[in-house]
Design a protein that fits this description.
The protein is α/β, with parallel strands linked by helices and 361 residues long. The protein has 15 helices and eleven strands. Strands 1, 2, 3, 4, 5, 6, 7, 8, 9, 10 and 11 form an eleven-stranded mixed beta sheet that branches. Helix 7 runs parallel beside helix 15. It is globular, with a radius of gyration of 20 Å. The two termini are 28 Å apart.
Length: 361
């Protein structure tokens, strides 16, 4: 998710090794398969894992994990496609349902059925005939609001897409660029699912007229423009509405010092679009065996239990633990907008082009 999804700053100090090189530094033995004991994970900026969980995998498997973070999810996927003949690593994590068809159509992944795939919740299973990708996490892209702003202005926060175009919310919303950002694209798809092929463009014309602000990615939108976030407060941000995640309010509580009695931000439940993130073994990976071991690890209960409080997403494995903070402050949307992956594949690029012309020009 992307999610990019998501509080990348809190991952500092978790013991990850990040590469800046364009590929793995370990070469193979000439047979086309690396004998290296290093496996490289390519991801968006929001990848994070607890130090002890990663260390346990490295000890058990014998592989050292290197992580290459490559920007927002959209940027990371595009770069992975451009470098697929000489990939930067062995496994890619973070392609979501909004971008999945682009990756599959460009043969980004090779087939591998990860151990534990039978324990993935049925609603998240996909590509069952070829097993090119493995579902890892899910989350909801939603508009978040700054509770203090709306209390101070004696204004009810928006609850739906329809509310966002009302005059009361003029110049209050910041969103991400749908052509470069996963949450930005998810928000666009949410409006397309809500208003249909013939209605979403008119909706965005009204949203633009109502003063929506567009920035490149989630980090800027949430931590620099949104007045409700800890980062936004420091930046003296002035937008009390932002496209983020249903799991953002728990993060504002968990990482606050001192912790507030309640989350300072809320979620407009009627603006949510469900996102699922996948990982896959990259085509032409230098260390396929290491890549397979890493994919298996991402589906273990240990990793799935650890993931929510590091990347602020929900697990997809049966019986994985959901933190109580998520239940209290960031429950999943009851009725999020969804869209068939085939429909996304057929329309995404045209919709993004139309959106760009409508909103950015």
């Amino acid at each position: 998710m992307s999610t990019t999804k998501k509080f990348a700053a809190v991952a500092v100090g978790l013991g990850l090794v990040t590469l800046s090189a364009c590929g793995s530094s370990d070469s193979g033995s000439g047979s086309g398969e690396s004998t290296s004991k290093t496996v490289t994970l390519v991801s968006h900026d929001s990848w994070a894992v607890s130090k002890d969980v990663l260390a346990a995998f490295e000890k058990q498997s014998g592989y050292k994990v290197r992580v290459l973070k490559d920007g927002d999810a959209g940027q990371a996927v595009n770069k992975a496609i451009l470098t697929k003949d000489n990939p930067q690593g062995d496994v890619f994590f973070g392609v979501d349902n909004t971008l999945l068809s682009r990756a599959l159509d460009n043969d980004l992944f090779q087939s591998y059925e990860a151990k534990g795939s039978d324990l993935i919740l049925p609603e998240f299973r996909i590509d069952q005939d070829k097993h090119r990708v493995t579902p890892i996490d899910t989350g909801d892209i939603c508009v978040n609001y700054d509770k203090a702003y709306f209390t101070e202005h004696k204004l009810a926060p928006p609850a739906s897409f329809d509310d966002l175009i009302k005059p009361a919310y003029k110049d209050l919303l910041v969103t991400e660029n749908a052509s470069t950002s996963s949450p930005g694209l998810g928000f666009l798809l949410g409006t397309a699912a809500k208003y249909g092929d013939d209605g979403w463009q008119d909706y965005w014309k009204k949203l633009k007229a109502n003063g929506v602000k567009v920035v490149d990615g989630w980090e800027q939108a949430y931590n620099e423009e949104f007045s409700g976030s800890a980062g936004g407060k420091k930046a003296k941000a002035d937008r009390p509405l932002v496209v983020s995640y249903a799991s953002s309010p728990p993060a504002e509580v968990i990482y606050a010092d001192p912790k507030p009695a309640s989350a300072p931000t809320g979620v407009a439940d009627g603006t949510c679009f469900r996102q699922v993130e996948y990982a896959g073994l990259l085509s032409n990976a230098k260390n396929t065996e290491g890549g397979k071991a890493l994919l298996d690890f991402l589906l273990t209960k240990t990793f799935q239990d650890d993931m929510p409080l590091n990347m602020f997403v929900y697990p997809v494995r049966e019986a994985a633990q959901v933190p109580p903070e998520f239940v209290k402050y960031g429950p999943q949307a009851k009725d999020p907008q969804t869209m068939d992956p085939a429909k996304i594949a057929d329309n995404r690029d045209d919709w993004v082009k139309s959106w760009t012309s409508l909103v950015l020009k």
